[in-house]
């Protein structure tokens, strides 16, 4: 039987796919742009057109599939957007779904991940939720523009600390779970990096790695919001969600360090310094 990976071209999905291939699993890589998936994974996967908002795409994607990596594309803000596909998984007797959730949602009902976890559980689908901290890829991705162009980290996180995790480590954890569905049935795993860092420390590490002086600008919420909407042209809804997340971060919700990654994989998660060295080009 095969494993369906949704968001297979995304930060986490591409590592889930790569790790499952290494484990000898047969992967169906899914997304709205199957050609992109063929370009990334060549003939190592079955690439399939799949859209959460198009119920007609579910049947083909679930053909001969008994396990699923489920992720919520960031622009689908309502938990209900994922319910039709979760219903389809229920009818299909999926043996394990590993949902890409968020650290702390077991106690925080505001992010959509909370309701999505509950919906999967209520339907009785065997689950292994993965609740990661903030991705290191946020810094090498969306926030790298200001680092490259202004030597500045422009994030409204105040003095808070974050236990950043590399999406590669999340992908490996998910693959371990999906590879042993009986062992991890009805479990939840809070996956973090090895240490909690504030953005001054992130700036120091990036300065060392790039050889340039990089500073943390520490903007307020309004300045950040205006800049990302007006200057960067990002969608208002997306920026508003990030403001809410940085508000929560300042409340201390992103700083816990766990050893769930080690328990699952027997390995130590990548440090931010290792990540920055590996992804130096993103900051140059
Ligand atoms: N960033 C963080 O720090 C963080 C921390 C914890 C949890 N999370 C959660 O992680 C999730 C994002 O994961 P990610 O960063 O790996 O994703 P991502 O890199 O933003 O990629 C999004 C993926 O979704 C696919 N997609 C877009 N629209 C789709 C649709 N309508 N139907 C099906 N697929 C669609 C895209 O592929 P196509 O374009 O080919 O369709 C792409 O592969 C979010 O739910 C977020 O809340 C993020």
UniProtKB/TrEMBL annotation:
InterPro entries associated with the record: Ergot_Alk_Oxidoreductase (IPR051604), NAD(P)-bd_dom_sf (IPR036291), NmrA-like (IPR008030)
Full protein name: SDR family oxidoreductase
Domain named NmrA-like: residues: 2-217
Gene3D superfamilies registered for this protein in UniProt: NAD(P)-binding Rossmann-like Domain, UDP-galactose 4-epimerase, domain 1
